Amino acid sequence: MNIDLVILGTVGLDDVETPFGKVKGVLGGSAVYAATAASFFSKSGVVSIAGHDLPKQYLQFFKERKIDIDGIEFKGKTFRWQGLYEFDMNEAKTIKTELNSLSEFEAKVPDRYLDAKFLFLANTDPVLQMKTLSKMRNKPFVVLDTMNYWITSQKADLLKVIKKVDLLVLNEGEARQLFDTPNLIKAGKQALALGVEYVIIKKGEHGALLFSSNDFFSAPSYPLEQVKDPTGAGDSFSGGLIGYLAKTDDTSEKNIRKAIIFGSCIASACAESFSLDYVRKTNLKNIKERYHDFKEIRRF
Amino acid sequence: MNIDLVILGTVGLDDVETPFGKVKGVLGGSAVYAATAASFFSKSGVVSIAGHDLPKQYLQFFKERKIDIDGIEFKGKTFRWQGLYEFDMNEAKTIKTELNSLSEFEAKVPDRYLDAKFLFLANTDPVLQMKTLSKMRNKPFVVLDTMNYWITSQKADLLKVIKKVDLLVLNEGEARQLFDTPNLIKAGKQALALGVEYVIIKKGEHGALLFSSNDFFSAPSYPLEQVKDPTGAGDSFSGGLIGYLAKTDDTSEKNIRKAIIFGSCIASACAESFSLDYVRKTNLKNIKERYHDFKEIRRF
To answer: What's the number of domains chain B is made of?
Structure first.
């Protein structure tokens, strides 16, 4: 069966510590968080690499979430990341990174993925993002996410691929860094000037901004009293967003606003638990309830 | 004629430098910014102190904006503040403060102010805030603003007066500091637990949050590409808010949501110019246009 939504990114095993607990060797990675979030709306195929040490229960998890893993190559040991969140929970401090098989990642895309209508280039090497994008046969709607590491180390490659995508997602810090301005409105407009149709700037607890040539949308965040582990919330936001776009097959500005809110619903649920534990407590009904709450918290 | 809206706070002469220019000896102070913003909706009476050196053109300004200054005592020299905003424009660095006559401020409230239905205790000494509040005869609706300085130096006095007010306004940093938590939702709820009916947490470029016992509202900010001088934007927000409440004589949660948006419209206009220059370019029609824009930027 052909795949409508393809997600390129990492599969990893994480050790995470926050003021509310710690976990070791749990499933993580940008593609995993994104595909899991998307799975509330759409089946996706993941292009990634993992090691033979990836615990069987995690393969089972992909199966349960109906995530297609034919695009995951298995080789050597799985990428590992160790992170720490301190008092303010705003940014992860990376304690250790072991690239392992990720250093040999070539982004091999199965043939039955190549006609997908939606492609999410989650955070990974911009050269692999470009390579994957170039392979696609039917000009999919492409969403791209990145991180400060690539802005610093491969800005030229990153800008090259950004110019090819339809929707660029940056967080606050990345937007300021990439466009060298403290003003997010300016940063958003500069991103549009690269030729991208839509730009989203994620602001964590402060919501998200959407820019397009003649429109602007400011989304609130879901009010969370207890953030347990922010790992993967950003990937869950984008995954939920593109999952909703793929399901509705509608990339109008109006529908992207809705997709942003659905992405925020899933990201907020994700941050309330460690790793991907939220999926055990969350179903589409809960997400729709949060969506309804969002309507209320912004009415005036 | 009796006064319906009373504003307690400072009158000052400011020297301000930002990356976009500098001004010297311009009109400022919490009560002045607040009363000016309120003047788009309501006449207010200011309780403050200024020096005999306050330039005549500023007295003329009060007259033009129909701000009643019978509550301003004139004595010695005017309070002066010198501030600098650097690249990120988020926080003023205080270069110099000369208290001058402000050190003798006693908050004398004219008799014809004492039956006011609305009282804004703008940023000033919490002991004077309490003194003013206690004098009022007809249990007005009271809004209180403060700053980190009072949280550090007079927390007990501040908490005492907070418990007497109807609506508490804090900025992000103050909320985190006062309730010793990085989580703004927790901070808002702790503030409500003090017995305050409404709590607003201002987040500058990220908008504002409103908490009440069974409601939550998240207001966006107005998208500004060019912030020239943030001085007084917070006071303008609260002044616009209480001016609108006084005009409509409605303190329901629903109307406070609207008042927050009107306050944000005025605060955003204020930040686009130095000092109070914005009033020359802004009328009620412009403010209502911004209000309409706010509806659009949050629709989904």
So the answer is: 1
CATH code of the domain covering residue B72: 3.40.1190.20
| Helix/strand/coil for A9 | coil
The Cα A54–Cα A56 span in angstroms is 6
**From CA B67, how far away is CA B33, in angstroms rounded?**
11
| Among A183, A298, A300, beta carbon nearest to B225 | A183
- Between CA B53 and CA B108 the distance in angstroms is 20
Q: What is the pLDDT along chain A (300 residues), one digit of tens a residue?
A: 889 999 999 999 999 999 999 999 999 999 999 999 999 999 999 999 999 999 999 999 999 999 999 999 999 999 999 999 987 787 889 999 999 999 999 999 999 999 999 999 999 999 999 999 999 999 999 999 999 999 999 999 999 999 999 999 999 999 999 999 999 999 999 999 999 999 999 999 999 999 999 899 999 999 999 999 999 999 999 999 999 999 999 999 999 999 999 999 999 999 999 999 999 999 999 999 999 999 999 999
Which one of B206, B254, B294 has the shortest CB-CB distance to A206? Answer: B206
Whether residues B207 and A185 touch (CB distance < 8 A) is answered with no
Q: How far apart are CA A274 and CA B13, in angstroms?
A: 52
Burial class (CB in 10 A: 0-12, 13-18, 19+), A28: buried
Residues 185-214 of B with CB under 8 A from A: 185-186, 189, 203, 205-207, 209
Instruction: Name the residue with tokens 């029609």.
Output: B285
Cβ neighbours for B140, distance < 8 A, ≥ 6 positions apart: B6, B116, B117, B118, B119
Q: Domain residues for A60?
A: 5-297
